[in-house]
Amino acid sequence: MRRLNRKKTLNLVKELDAFPKVPESYVETSASGGTVSLIAFTTIAFLTIMEFTVYRDTWMKYEYEVDKDFTSKLRINIDITVAMRCQYVGADVLDLAETMVAAADGLIYEPVVFELSPQQKEWQRTLQLIQSRLQEEHSLQDVIFKSAFKSASTALPPREDNFLQSPDACRIHGHLYVNKVAGNFHITVGKAIPHPRGHAHLAALVSHESYNFSHRIDHLSFGELIPGIINPLDGTEKIASDHNQMFQYFITVVPTKLHTYKISAETHQFSVTERERVINHAAGSHGVSGIFMKYDISSLMVTVTEEHMPFWQFLVRLCGIIGGIFSTTGILHGFGRFVAEVIFCRFRLGSYKSTSVPLPDGHTSNHLPLITDNSMH
């Protein structure tokens, strides 16, 4: 009884078979079918390789939300070389809350030579080339995000030559922690001193002839310092045309959370516009000579996440490719055979001419003669 029920179940399952097997004796092969199959297999192999390449690749997803963190401190990473002696210049930050952060809190003044060595010049040219490409092709920023922490360092390499010239410039480098509000980081003549109404710089003892605010920005970033990230002002060099000249950078800082398969960090991106002018009070161009970086904090926060195609989606797309190519090539092959048979049959029918066959009663027949085995012999 159990065997009978099992046999009925198997027969029922066989009737539900959507893929019936055709005996090989009933299968007819052809050269055209083999050619189409070869083309189909080649196309499947090519598209499978391309799809696997897409599966291995990742992309960056950008999400925006309101930044609710206003109590934490903002870190500013600075590496700027000014073509003046260190005793003549001072750097500090003054924010909208009238809070002054002196350079002594985290910046180092290092006497250096302003002219770069050959290796350093090559580094600067490479960095400037990357900056120009980033301005033209914004998608390269995704590549930089992915290569963070594993690419080569973007810091200025040390001098490889023994330059005997005495230092004529001052390298100001290090980091500062400031309030998360708009502020002004500046480098001008004289050291900064606190003042009840703000702050001041001791510039009276410095001759105007020694003013030279030609400068090179080797690095400027906000937030956590991430190796491999190239910021908009990295590699910037400005040469002053006058002793009394002001360089201004207007910066908009955007808080950014970066989540990739390599790192997870909280940093800041920024955009910048530049302006420079000569200070001439007689011509109505007022101001103070120096380098001024006025920054403002955006209220929006960007979350950058590296995403990857799920494996199930890769399988679905792969099945679609294989099934679609087999179905399409089968339809095209069947249609091609149908057209070829129609044309060939018409050609064969047109090759026969009608002949008159005499009948015993004296009539003639215009039908085609019946071909028999005897007539073929």
From TrEMBL:
<keyword id="KW-0256">Endoplasmic reticulum</keyword>
<comment type="function">
    <text>Plays a role in transport between endoplasmic reticulum and Golgi.</text>
</comment>
<feature type="domain" description="Endoplasmic reticulum vesicle transporter C-terminal">
    <location>
        <begin position="166"/>
        <end position="331"/>
    </location>
</feature>
<dbReference type="GO" id="GO:0033116">
    <property type="term" value="C:endoplasmic reticulum-Golgi intermediate compartment membrane"/>
</dbReference>
<dbReference type="InterPro" id="IPR045888">
    <property type="entry name" value="Erv"/>
</dbReference>
<dbReference type="InterPro" id="IPR039542">
    <property type="entry name" value="Erv_N"/>
</dbReference>
<feature type="domain" description="Endoplasmic reticulum vesicle transporter N-terminal">
    <location>
        <begin position="13"/>
        <end position="98"/>
    </location>
</feature>
<dbReference type="GO" id="GO:0030134">
    <property type="term" value="C:COPII-coated ER to Golgi transport vesicle"/>
</dbReference>
<keyword id="KW-0931">ER-Golgi transport</keyword>
<keyword id="KW-0333">Golgi apparatus</keyword>
<keyword id="KW-1133">Transmembrane helix</keyword>
<keyword id="KW-0812">Transmembrane</keyword>
<comment type="similarity">
    <text>Belongs to the ERGIC family.</text>
</comment>
<dbReference type="GO" id="GO:0005789">
    <property type="term" value="C:endoplasmic reticulum membrane"/>
</dbReference>
<dbReference type="GO" id="GO:0000139">
    <property type="term" value="C:Golgi membrane"/>
</dbReference>
<protein>
    <recommendedName>
        <fullName>Endoplasmic reticulum-Golgi intermediate compartment protein</fullName>
    </recommendedName>
</protein>
<dbReference type="GO" id="GO:0006890">
    <property type="term" value="P:retrograde vesicle-mediated transport, Golgi to endoplasmic reticulum"/>
</dbReference>
<keyword id="KW-0472">Membrane</keyword>
<dbReference type="Pfam" id="PF13850">
    <property type="entry name" value="ERGIC_N"/>
</dbReference>
<dbReference type="GO" id="GO:0006888">
    <property type="term" value="P:endoplasmic reticulum to Golgi vesicle-mediated transport"/>
</dbReference>
<keyword id="KW-0813">Transport</keyword>
<dbReference type="Pfam" id="PF07970">
    <property type="entry name" value="COPIIcoated_ERV"/>
</dbReference>
<dbReference type="InterPro" id="IPR012936">
    <property type="entry name" value="Erv_C"/>
</dbReference>
